[in-house]
Amino acid sequence: MTTTLLKIPLAQIAHARSGDKADWVDFGLFAWNEAGYGLIEREVTATKVQAHFAQWLPGQVDAWPLPNILAMKFVLHGALQGGGARNLRLDNLGKAMGAALLRLEIEVTAEELEQAQKSPRRGWWPEVSPGN
Amino acid sequence: MTNAIRIGSGLGFYGDNWEPVVASIERGQVQFIASDHLAELTLAILQKDRQRDPALGYARDVLPMLLRLWPLMQPRGVRFICNAGGLNPMGAAQAVQKALAAAGWHPRIAVVSGDDVLAQLQAPDKRFDHMMNGADLTSVSERLVFGNAYLGAQPIVEALDLGAEIVITGRVADAALFLGPLVHALGWKLADAATPEDFYRLAQGLTVGHLLECSGQGSGGNFGSQGSWQNIPDLAHIGYPIAEVWPDGTAFITKAPGTGGLVNFDTVRQQLLYEVHNPHAYFSPDVVLDMGQIELHDEGQHRVRLTGAQGSAPTDQLKVVAGFEDGFKADITWGFSWPDAWDKVQAAEAMVRSQLKERQMPFDELFVEYPGLNSAHGPLAPLPPASELNERAEIWVRMVLRTRSKAVADGFGRLFPWMALSGPAYTCGFQGLNSSSALLGIWPTLIPRDRVQARVDILEPGA
Q1: Considering the domain boundaries, does residue A123 fall inside one?
Q2: Are B331 and B396 in contact (CB under 8 A)?
Q3: In a domain, A67, yes or no
Q4: A residues 5-24 near B, CB within 8 Å?
Q5: B339-380 tens-digit pLDDT
Q6: Mean pLDDT of chain A
Q7: Alpha-carbon separation of residue B455 from B110, B130, B382 (angstroms)
Q8: Of B435, B428, B443, B445, the residue nearest B403 (C-alpha)
Q9: Percentage of chain B surpassing pLDDT 90?
């Protein structure tokens, strides 16, 4: 019996923020819970992140897992045309690049996806009041 | 026994909003506000100000900010630390003193300077290689416009020990703006830190500073996610983060009651990793931080406990960021409507390229992107086929010229207006006729600590 794998963007199981220092863009990638962390640690390697950005920004990628906060850190070298104040792009500081990382597709089973999406979040989120 | 100290976040950049700080002062029980006005390249903006007027060169928003906040801080004994001094901390302090005196306030103001190392970089007697690509500084040393070392918390501690109520610095490590008051108020060891406990407290304090240095980004602002940011309450009235820090280093991140935003495990850790490279070696002038054992315990109701930051002794070098002139750019934005909007944009671009060639305008690069289609994510947001784009109601194009010639940059916008009457039909919203500006390269490097002499001055009353 073969298990069907689903291709899902990281946005379905994780959140992310990007930042800039000189010519490097850095990313924090955060799973909502332990189940999601298991998936991003298994699926989102430096090689895969590099391949994801390669046709656009073919720089080296460094990666560090941080299981203590259910997160991974990535750094993409040479991502800002030399740095924010000489970068011609509208997004000269790479502020939207965290979202670009969330486009990266990974392969998971339906069961793994459900676990990552349905397990409780570690963080406290207030009840959303109607109309808020 | 000393109780906990509460410190609140001020601005996160030059141009940020100070109104949320009011709630921190009035209802957040803070003893200190620390405010970061200097992003990596803000000094480039300040350098242009200083060229126009030598009395400037500081982040001028500190004046209206303090005119609004000092009348709330002073009666409560809240002290204020900021790096708004930029390239001219003494000028900033004098301007603050004058503005507050005119309003009847006379705080004790300290100035921290000594971060300016431009002269050493312009006539280098040692190598100042680029930290990231290893290049030799001499390739750009004649084009440098500023160069500043990141000072640590020590001069801020000294200023507060001298009784300063307002401390104005030039370039210091952002987190040092927060670590300084913690060391001062909690009696932590800094220059004489030796034991693992000493470095643990400094690492915790540095982490606190890092979590608070970007204002609302530490309390639910700019929360990158799909489908969750909508559940963060009332960003229009966000409360900036506040840290409650205990003498043993244990810290809690929270915010003032009755404010918007969200302090939880998710929002705090997004900020924890922001602009961090190796999380096991986050360098600062005061301590090297390892985040690998950090625990963020979410207590609910906007309160997160921070423990486990590991610290070790800093190196004998300080980070420097310098900026150098790196040519010019000019950018235009233009829209065309249906029908055939995509083909019109392509035709306009081709005509601009041929004009650049015919007029022999030298340039390094003509960068083209399509706002609304690919300016945020480049080829990760693949363009639909031309047939589909031609059916769109409108297509916008942004063309940016990079050139070493200021005259060419100044003339770029002039290549477009004729097309309004003589080019493709149905144009919309041309911008950029006079859009040329100077580009700046950035040069991060290291300097031996003993070549940088921090200085603390207390401003004479009424000086």
Answers
A1: no
A2: no
A3: yes
A4: 11-12, 15-24
A5: 999 999 999 999 999 999 999 999 999 999 999 999 999 999
A6: 95
A7: 10, 27, 53
A8: B435
A9: 96
Residues of chain A above pLDDT 90, percent: 92
- Domain span at residue A63 reads 15-118
In 3D, which of B309, B252, B210 has the Cα closest to residue B28? Answer: B252
CA torsion angle B156 B159 B165 B169 (round to 10):
-50
| Residue numbers of B between 365 and 394 with CB closer than 8 Å to A | 365, 367, 369, 371, 375-380
Angle between helices B196-212 and B176-186 (to 10 degrees): 130
Q: What is the CATH number of domain B325-441?
A: 3.30.70.100
By C-alpha distance, the chain A residue nearest B230 is: A132
In a domain, A39, yes or no: yes
pLDDT higher than threshold 60 for residue B177: yes
CB pairs under 8 A between A and B: 178
Q: Regarding beta strands B427-431 and B317-337, do their DSSP bridges make them parallel or antiparallel, or are they unpaired?
A: antiparallel
Indicate the domain borders of chain B. 5-115+150-314, 325-441
Confidence of residue B2 (pLDDT cuts 50, 70, 90): low
> Considering only residues 69 to 108 of chain A, which have any Cβ-Cβ distance to chain B shorter than 8 Å?
69-71, 73, 75, 77, 82-86, 88-91, 95-100, 102-103
Is there a contact between A15 and B266 if contact means CB atoms under 8 Å apart?
Answer: yes
Tally of domains within chain A: 1
Q: Give me the mean pLDDT over the B280-299 stretch.
A: 98
* pLDDT (average), residues B85-92: 97
The whole-number pLDDT of residue B190 equals 98
Total Cβ atoms within 10 A of residue B107: 20
In a domain, A37, yes or no: yes
Angle at CA B133, nearest 5°, toward B285 and A91?
85
Spatial contact of B79 and B182, defined as CB atoms under 8 Å apart: no
- Over its length of 132 residues, how does chain A's per-residue pLDDT go in tens digits? 678 999 999 999 999 999 999 999 999 999 999 999 999 999 999 999 999 999 999 999 999 999 999 999 999 999 999 999 999 999 999 999 999 999 999 999 999 999 999 999 999 999 876 544
